[in-house]
Amino acid sequence: MKQSKTFIPTLREIPADADALSHQLLLRAGFIRQHASGVYSYLPLGFKVLQKIEEIVREEMNEAGAVELLLPSLQQAELWQESGRWDAYGPELMRLTDRHERPFALGPTHEEVITSLVRDEINSYKKLPLTLYQIQTKFRDEKRPRFGLLRGREFIMKDAYSFHSTEESLDETYQDMVKAYTNIFTRLGLNFRAVIADSGSIGGTDTHEFMVLSEIGEDTIAYSDETDYAANIEMAEVNVEYTHSDEEMGTLEKVETPDQRTIEEVANYLEVSQEQCIKTLVFNVDDELIVVLSRGDHEINEIKLKHALNAESVELAEEQAVFELLNCHVGSLGPVKLPVNVKVIADHGIKSIRNGVCGANEDGFHYKNVNPGRDFAIDHFEDIRFIQVGDPTPDRQGTIKFAEGIEVGHVFKLGTKYSDAMNAGFLDENGRKQPFIMGCYGIGVSRLLAAVAEQFQDNYGFMWPKQIAPYDIHLISVNEKDEAQKTLTDDLYKLLRSYRYDVLYDDRKERAGVKFADADLIGLPVRVTVGKKASEGIVEVKFRQSGETFEWAKEELVDRLNNFFHAE
């Protein structure tokens, strides 16, 4: 492709509203343009990368036995009402009505649509298992779109759904998908980890996220420094053997703590460690107010709390509700002398507290020498805190470290969540109707474009891996007016294309410095420059990732490029 004939609107200045480096470069190098907040156009370069990513995804999905189809983006509200998600999904679901006032949604995901399709078409265990997938635009009304393609309101996703007659069959497909995802992200050259995760609004159990390690990642990964253990921080289990003090229990004492509201303030004021303080919070759990306790140096994990209580919804109680329950404000809450019938859930770390400190449920006062069991009752202990750096791993074979990650893939075991709700099933070998056992497997394709862009760049621009670069070779003629240079460049353009190389030929009437700057910005794997030695049949070849530069004769160019592009 001649550069003068394509559409690559590069920018010299960094866009003011782009925070992530990948977002800045995708805009500057002319790969994308913003249409609205969280909505982007993919320009020719960006679209070519997307197509190559999709090709890798398709190859691995097909190899795993999945079959591609295309489902509608416009989804009937009735299906979402069947599954119970029409109201539960929340404001991220884009809803609309047609001219007949019938409600629809723009699909953020396709569990309902695919379940209804298979429900109507598959009725026997003999046709199972079945895995179907698509690559399609999705819609979610994100409250705060940010980081360009990493969190948008319109995005491209590969979503797959599997249907099974047995749990063993689901387990087999789940592992096949984990392998396929591992192959995809490895082929893309990404630094990633598969981590234990929460299923969120999709539902189900046994789920893993695939995280690309990045400083701008919105998720924190807890991983072992010795084993391959990794989990989203929301799901990382705490397996700490807390030491119990033999110190004699002191007498419970109420003390004044004026204007001391935070754990740090109270600990400093009373000259105790934060470990000795009891953090007391009130949560609204399925419309019931529950008191939740952790050590002062720990943070309560709402996801773990939700799972521990098998709850549908968990959120901090509103301040007015807390005041009506305990007659004090947040900052002075404690578990001593609570109203009758108020449940108390505590993290295991509370067991280690001896002669601790907690709020007195009276503004400006705290208790000293508080001891669990003697001074207040706990309904049950649970692992409900966030894991911390330095904690032992769940298998106790390593120590926890943290890294930031960008979620690019997610695999779920849905079980019968949707098939039960939507009466979708099959006849087993005994002629009895059974619900489909389902799996769900998603990859953020447009997110992958941003994730790769985030990892493969330097101060000058992109350094695209050869397997997904928009073009293989950037061919540059330094001086279009020089007959020898133009002739050799034209000859090389024809030669390289005859060998099936995808070549971007910079034939613009621009200064050499502009061409070189744009070439570095765009970041194709190889730059071939035809300059002063054109009359000798010699060109300069530069490899973008390594920065290595060579002078090669025209006659050896193809063989050497073949060695580079066909090497593993």
TrEMBL record:
GO terms for biological process: prolyl-tRNA aminoacylation. Its EC number is 6.1.1.15. SUPFAM superfamilies: Class II aaRS ABD-related, Class II aaRS and biotin synthetases, YbaK/ProRS associated domain. Its main location: cytoplasm. Keywords: Aminoacyl-tRNA synthetase, ATP-binding, Cytoplasm, Ligase, Nucleotide-binding, Protein biosynthesis. GO terms for molecular function: aminoacyl-tRNA deacylase activity; ATP binding; catalytic activity, acting on a protein; proline-tRNA ligase activity; transferase activity. InterPro entries: aa-tRNA-synt_IIb, aa-tRNA-synth_II, aa-tRNA-synth_II/BPL/LPL, Anticodon-bd, Anticodon-bd_dom_sf, Pro-tRNA-ligase_IIa, Pro-tRNA-synth_IIa_bac-type, Pro-tRNA-Synthase_IIa_type1. It catalyses: tRNA(Pro) + L-proline + ATP = L-prolyl-tRNA(Pro) + AMP + diphosphate. It is found in: Cytoplasm. Residues 38-465 form the Aminoacyl-transfer RNA synthetases class-II family profile domain. It is an enzyme of class 6 (ligase). One of its GO terms (cellular component) is cytosol. Belongs to the class-II aminoacyl-tRNA synthetase family. ProS type 1 subfamily. Catalyzes the attachment of proline to tRNA(Pro) in a two-step reaction: proline is first activated by ATP to form Pro-AMP and then transferred to the acceptor end of tRNA(Pro). As ProRS can inadvertently accommodate and process non-cognate amino acids such as alanine and cysteine, to avoid such errors it has two additional distinct editing activities against alanine. One activity is designated as 'pretransfer' editing and involves the tRNA(Pro)-independent hydrolysis of activated Ala-AMP. Consists of three domains: the N-terminal catalytic domain, the editing domain and the C-terminal anticodon-binding domain. Homodimer. This is Proline--tRNA ligase. It comes from Rummeliibacillus stabekisii. The gene is proS.
